[in-house]
Amino acid sequence: MKNILIYWFLQLNKIFPKKHHPFHDLKNGIHDINYTDFEYSHTSELLKMYKDFYDFSELKWKKILEIWCGWWWKAIYISEHYDCSAVGIDLNLNFLSQAGNKAQEKWVEDNVKFVAMSALEMDFNENEFDLVLMSDVLEHIPETEKLLKEVHRVTKTWWIILFDFAPYYHYFGHHLWDTIQIPWLHLFTTEKFRIDLYKESLKWLPDADKRIDLRVWFNELGKESFTYLNRITRKQFENIISECEEKWFFKKCTISYFMLKNISILSKIPFLREVWIRHIVWSLKK
To answer: Which of 25, 27, 109, 126 has the most CB atoms around it within 10 Å of its CB?
Structure first.
């Protein structure tokens, strides 16, 4: 029965238009995974999302921190265009090496450094950074409040923390859109079924094993799970932010992007607001 369902879901998947994914731009697929070109080309669009919160021309001679995302072309791009210094952190040594090589190619290696470090326990001084950037990060790090507390510690008073993310009920909140384009799939299927479906969708790709290894891990119960997602919803995140605001005196600003603006009235209905949201962009001022 499960095999029949998988077959029909794969047929259903063909109905939906394929969404561009950087995995498909790689010569050998994920075997030589490197988001660098994708990230660099999209950084200017990302900064436009933040333009209502911060004027990046004020970054000259300032110091920024980018946390765990996209091989740091964003940090390289910002340093290159705004004459500032930057630090990128991650725990993956391969990613750090790639980022360092790209910084050399762009002649900004003196201004941009990459360090192996957990975002939850950063080896930086208090009040060290003028700006912290987290793009498409928040939905992946498990302890959201601990992360925000640590980011608050390393950010200078009166300076800015910028981040954006897609909450879990987002139509591609399952994060499988390199091959699965069925919207809201994770709301009406089990995780076990999605893992089996994803594996089957990769069957004919040369880098199938690498994609599976990237997304599917064994959880503490020894079962296969999409453990790279923390499944945070818009409501959960707003509750965390409200608590942090009281504890650490954040000043917050937010923009939420919804699907199909001409019928955005749907975003006023509590449950539909969760599933209709496309992206959340936040700014916190310390």
So the answer is: 109
